[in-house]
Predict the structure.
Amino acid sequence: MFGSSFGSNTPPVVKNLLIINVIMLLFTMFTGDFMYKYFALYYVESEWFSPYQIITHMFMHGGFWHLFFNMYTLYIFGSLLENIWGSKKFFLYYMVTGLGAAFLHELVMFFQAE
């Protein structure tokens, strides 16, 4: 599907993140609201909030085009960064920026709730 260059030239963390994100979208498409209800990030005071959502929200997307553009960007820039920094440092960067996004989301929700 992607040709031999996808598997051989794509750094391992980027490749695995691409696969995980595509699988999560497929599950979301087939299960409907189930995935959003349990894996999207809800406001901390919501009855739907669970601590694991701080991680799982990083792999949730609103649809095909949302996923496509995010994964295209991950493939282009993530591959470059992982090749420069190495897999461990890039994975840490990916997780820290995802946690930062969760924090900012919760902060915005806090001010909107007031």
